[in-house]
């Protein structure tokens, strides 16, 4: 069954295990491809991962003049193809989340490919495998729907669906505030 | 006895996931080398080179389900690291002690000869006890067990102790006193997310034991409550339902205050108290004084919060009290443990699933390593050296006469005192790095420097190795096999994924070879493998409190670990303690203890107006000797820092990222300032994973808990000074 990356931002503790694990994916040349952001370090320890959301209609791929950014049949937006990437860095500017990274030495863009050698066979990507807090999860659409019901906030905003972002994404994100919908046991 | 229905059940988080197998690789299942979560992992081994080349999650390990913190993910990078010690090192020039210089490579034979000659000479001149052993618990049960035997039988010294004195000794003392048994947790960890209220005292869970966080959040997801008592707003405190932001060192008052409210407000379980405990009335009397207002005065926590904490814990159908080094590394650590355990005993929230008490063990084998006799007063199976019957039993297993068993020694920190007095003249140090981890470093380093002879066994040249005459290269955890006992009291299997690098040898082998050269081979030579050592440990622990006799490596494999006590082959082990409400004191009852409050060894005054507290960051482990060498972890946290509240910073006119001088009565160091509102205004925090001039333990105090002999790392009095000229690091 198809599974997706699902994010519950409120759970994050900033351990950056997701980034450490990213370097361990066989296809990642030991470079991590995503970000963990300190929301307001002078105030508190809140952090959140900033992961590629694998847009259905990705701005990075659209902006690429060389068709170097391929979309896998699973929906994963892949890293730039070495033989096609011309190093123009359009994609790094086009992405509304600032995800693609650029290797100046290789003159090559690299980004999260959802550990495609794993996720194409339904194996969770490294980040979602190790995340100690279940901020990053690997779920079926049914499980995601159940989550949506569980954390319904009455404002329709439990996923990133804001108009100025890039529209529909393959990765589903639960914004901070998940506990607002929970009824206390006593 | 009531049956324990726990069958290592696959809980709601469990998923069948197949691992990714790369071509030309095999996966060796094992556990992390670092903390007591002992996260399951697979090591990726290249089948052509037979070298470890990476890590793959172990999704089917029931406790952690493939999850790892960044230390675990990168742990394998220790094994073939360029800094590995590959040959024994000898330093002939004693004047270079305390530096990295002057070591030359030597053969094992030469190193052994020198060690045996120096130890024998010193023992001839100054007695057997002039040689000491200082050990650690970041290694297997097999090694911990053999180290105790090595000290008592091969070296015949009474002076052996271990770094658990900086880690678990107060928890052990408190749990033994309250419950009659020291198994760190009364419940398996798979119960945690099922409880209705967790009370976390002095545990920076998110940084120190990250892979239990999904279960902690799971409590809130079900509508349960998370309460955290900590001077800092750690990531777990940030999202807690209630954060009790107490002054460092005031846990005893806080616990008494909560117990008082539990009793006053009718949350005591009278049946349970009457049938299964002693000491309720005295405690009730004593805690009366700890009204919310009085407790608030001492702790600095608002009275409403104390009232709310007692209400939530009291009302919860099931609740777990958990604590860690925050409450234990104090001169009243043992009392703190018993005082928080009182919460469970008064309300009867112990001795059943989803309710109980646990200390969150620090080191990988912090549990097993304290059970089998490398503690100054202990023998295998949690036996006591002061008990003649215990000595008789263990002597028989070891093949010595009971009279030959050395007497009880002293605690780790007190060994430095004996070095100063020249009672101890030589040291065999393994699996520990006291030149970073002990308090009052100026004093400790001086004592190590003054030793007549010192051996350090490690796989990297640690700060402590800089004081050694001989350094022996040992293996990492992935080059040997054996067992550890995790945070739950579950005995698990560490597997070998690679043959020892260079000439390194596992500690047990080194000790057997030294024993043979000391002429004590007849007590050791029958042990050919680590499994032989485990099987001897099983017999040595048989009938003790920590009974491992029924544990076999095969059983561990078959049932995903075995919880002790496990008395015989048919016994599946004991995941939940006290299901029959029988505690381990002779009368079967637990002790509710009346514990008067007292101040910390050093409280802030005019000259030193701030509380200094120390702890960990998620990227480093203990003294940092391992993790500081791993690129990813170093990139994430390259140096220590001092956390300061913005109002405090303003008072001292210091800015974010400026270097300041921090000092106490014992020492000083320079740190980069990290301004954050997530700390009390009267407190500063520095992580302790660095050595030399960056060590915060230059400043900490060597005051000890009277029972556990654990130093008070968690509070002393300090002052900050703005630097005249800005230091360039
Ligand atoms: S691994 Fe999970 S908890 Fe840790 S930083 Fe990444 S998202 Fe956050
Ligand atoms: S350090 Fe502890 S929490 Fe982190 S991976 Fe290792 S055992 Fe797990």
Question: How would you portray this structure in words?
Answer:
The complex is a heterodimer of chains A (186) and B (729). Chain A has 186 residues and is α+β, with helices and mostly antiparallel strands. Chain A is built from six helices and nine strands. Chain A has helices at residues 17-22, 59-63, 90-94, 116-119, 126-130, 141-150, and strands spanning 3-8, 35-38, 47-50, 69-71, 77-80, 101-103, 108-110, 136-140, 172-174. In chain A, the strands form four sheets. A three-stranded mixed beta sheet of chain A has the order 8-1-9. The longest helix of chain A is centred in the last third of the chain and has 10 residues, at 141-150. Chain A is globular and about 60 Å long. Chain B has 729 residues and is an alpha/beta fold. Chain B has four domains: 2-78, 2-Layer Sandwich (Phosphorylase Kinase, domain 1); 89-166 and 365-563, Rossmann fold; 169-359, Dimethylsulfoxide Reductase, domain 2 (3-Layer(aba) Sandwich), CATH 3.40.228.10; 610-722, Barwin-like endoglucanases (Beta Barrel). Chain B is 29% helix and 17% strand. Chain B contains 23 helices and 28 strands. A seven-stranded mixed beta sheet of chain B has the order 5-4-18-17-16-6-7, sandwiched between helices. In chain B, strands 24-26-25-28-23-27 form a six-stranded mixed beta sheet. The mean pLDDT of chain B is 96. The chains are: A alpha+beta (186), B alpha/beta (729). At the A-B interface, α1 and α5 of A face β3, α1, α6 and α7 of B. The structure holds iron/sulfur cluster (2 copies). The site of one iron/sulfur cluster (SF4) has 14 residues of chain A, from α1.
